[in-house]
Amino acid sequence: MFRRKFMGIFGAAALAMTGAMPLKAEAGQDIVDTAVSAGSFNTLVAAVQAADLVGTLKGEGPFTVFAPTDEAFAALPEGTVETLLKPENKDQLVAILTYHVVPAKVMSGDIAGKKAQVMTVQGDRLEVNARNGVKVEGAEVIQADIVASNGVIHVVDKVLLPE
């Protein structure tokens, strides 16, 4: 149902890395378990739980997740995260979170030096530019290719917001 053909997302040579130790998935861990064990996605994990998307992201996949760090969520206007986590805002939270998910496993080498528009689970397209660094809707990919049992995580420095 979520599977659609599209071009891949990143050029491996264009990836920017943080000075922190690179994240790695433990053998057999799915996307959710990988995010939990990383320790830098606490807000994302809380949002996925509040949106009842844990079961989906622990599912067969494959998925590509653009995972905003806790710092990316903290950069949102004050009170945004708290408001989104309220039960009455669940639909908006689901829309934002599924905008970060592509219904296929896309590794970094797939579009080196290219631009692409990719369909998200939410239904909108993301603009990906791997010509000079790697940006997804203006967010920089700061670590790519964290392989999980049901897909891959690419860490981004901003929360992606659908229009």
Polypeptide structure, described:
The protein has six helices and seven strands, in the order αααβαααββββββ. The protein has 163 residues and is an alpha+beta fold. Helix 2 packs across helix 6. The N terminus is likely disordered.
**How many DSSP E strands?**
7
Task: Give the end-to-end Cα distance, rounded to a whole number of Å.
Answer: 23 Å
What is the fold named in CATH at topology level? FAS1 domain
Q: What is the residue-averaged pLDDT?
A: 84
Structural category: alpha+beta
Output the CATH class name: Mainly Beta
Largest sheet: 7 strands, mixed
| Proportion of helical residues | 10-25%
Number of domain modules: 1
Strand arrangement across the biggest beta sheet:
2-1-7-6-5-4-3
Write the element-wise H/E pattern from the N-terminal end onward: HHHEHHHEEEEEE
Residue share in β-strands: 15-25%
Q: What is the level-2 CATH architecture name?
A: Roll
Overall morphology: globular
Number of helices: 6
The CATH superfamily turns out to be FAS1 domain
Radius of gyration: 14 Å
Explain briefly what this protein structure is.
This protein is an alpha+beta fold.
List keywords for this structure.
globular; Fasciclin domain-containing protein; alpha+beta; 25% helix; 22% strand; Adhesion/Biosynth-related; seven-stranded mixed β-sheet; 6 helices; signal; disordered N terminus; 163 residues; FAS1_domain; FAS1 domain; 7 strands
